[in-house]
From TrEMBL:
The species this protein was found in: Candidatus Nitrobium versatile
Name under which the protein is recorded: Site-specific integrase
Key words, A-Z: DNA recombination, DNA-binding
GO molecular-function terms, A-Z: DNA binding
Family the UniProt entry places it in: Belongs to the 'phage' integrase family.
Signal peptide range: none
Pfam family for this entry, one: Phage_integrase
The Tyr recombinase domain, residue ranges: 169-345
KW DNA-binding (keyword) present: yes
One of the GO biological process terms: DNA integration
Length: 361
């Protein structure tokens, strides 16, 4: 038994053995005297045979879990992701209540989907299955963070339920005419950073948040690559992709001509861009180009769609888009019709030969 400090932590940890099993637990304090008192209490409980790992789900409330996740994770997200999380928190509170324990959440989570399907917004609409899936996915993520990062001894009840399928698999991309109209307006845009960020979005498939937070050090001009650490990516996977020439030349030009000391690739005279500023500028250009139903995120769909239309296989597209689940990539499957025509022509030839044989009999 004893106390120690980890290199990456300022708090004291305690090590002890119960029934032949060794445990390392945080004391939760950087005060050594207090840590010694905590270890002494644990030692007493072990001697009295009263120590056991306690299931915290009966004590911790949903509000405690959400508030901690909000502080440590949601507040670090971009404007739109943050707004989405906070809206989901409100729906979770509306169904479960703020002060329910996690044990009660476990008992009731299976009814959440049916309850949400009956809710009607101010616009008179009910949430679709994709929206409900996102809400339950965030709840599942919070439980996983609590278990794996905070070391709470709880179960994850969302892991045991089947999430609703996403009914809206949107694939909106620019056709040739829209593409030309957009870039005519981008050339005339007052923001010098807008056209480059759109070019790189289409050329890499990166999300808006990743582009805004893209560091100059993450662009390896020598290797013609972008390399981003996993913690900055939506699905927690490392991103390391080669650059198409158009995206590479755009990044190279933008970085080499930036005379500021701003660490971010896309900046406004040395000031970091923020989500709403990019969105407002992009929406203005889309409107002046008279393009309907097109969002910044659809630039990512342009990337996937153009790859597929040019014969790239789905597995490669999944890798380039950093999709953990290749079902996400299936939305682009229908876009390469020409590659399917060749085997159909072969079938035609085979059938014609078959019919010729039949007719000769």
């Amino acid at each position: 038994m004893g106390l120690y400090r980890r290199k990456d932590s300022s708090i004291w940890w305690m090590s002890f053995v119960v029934n032949g099993k060794q445990y390392q637990k945080p004391t939760g304090t950087s005060d050594k005297k207090l840590a010694e008192n905590i270890l002494a209490k644990v030692t007493t409980r072990i001697v009295e045979d009263k120590w056991f790992e306690k299931d915290l789900s009966k004590e911790i409330t949903l509000k405690e879990m959400i508030e901690r996740y909000d502080r440590e994770y949601t507040e670090m997200k971009d404007y739109y992701q943050k707004a989405r999380d906070k809206t989901i928190f409100k729906h979770l509170y509306a169904f479960f209540g703020e002060n329910v324990t996690l044990e009660e959440v476990n008992a009731r989570v299976g009814s959440y989907q049916k309850w949400r399907e009956k809710q009607v917004s101010k616009k008179g609409k009910s949430p679709d299955s994709g929206t409900i899936r996102k809400e339950l996915s965030l709840l599942r993520r919070m439980f996983n963070v609590a278990r794996k990062q905070w070391k709470w001894r709880i179960m994850n009840p969302v892991s045991d339920i089947e999430l609703p399928k996403d009914s809206k698999e949107r694939v909106r991309y620019l056709d040739m005419d829209e593409f030309k109209r957009l870039f005519v307006k981008l050339d005339a845009a007052e923001e010098p950073w807008l056209k480059p960020i759109v070019i790189v979005a289409i050329g890499t498939g990166l999300r808006q948040g990743n582009l805004i937070n893209l560091l100059k050090t993450e662009v390896r001009l020598k290797d013609k690559m972008i390399v981003i650490d996993s913690e900055k990516m939506k699905n927690d996977d490392y991103f390391g992709n080669p650059l198409a020439n158009v995206a590479f030349e755009t990044l190279k030009d933008f970085i080499e001509n930036d005379v500021t000391d701003c660490p971010y690739v896309f900046n406004d005279n040395g000031t970091k861009l923020y989500d709403r500023k990019v969105q407002r500028a992009f929406v203005r250009v889309i409107r002046t180009a008279e393009i309907q139903d097109f969002r910044f995120h659809d630039l990512r769909h342009c990337f996937g769609s153009y790859l597929r239309q040019n014969g790239v296989d789905l597995a490669t597209i999944a890798a380039l888009m950093n999709h953990k689940d290749q079902r996400m990539t299936q939305r682009y499957a229908h876009l390469n019709v020409e590659s399917l025509r060749r085997p159909i022509r072969k079938l035609d030839s085979a059938l014609l030969r078959f019919y010729d044989v039949k007719s000769q009999k």
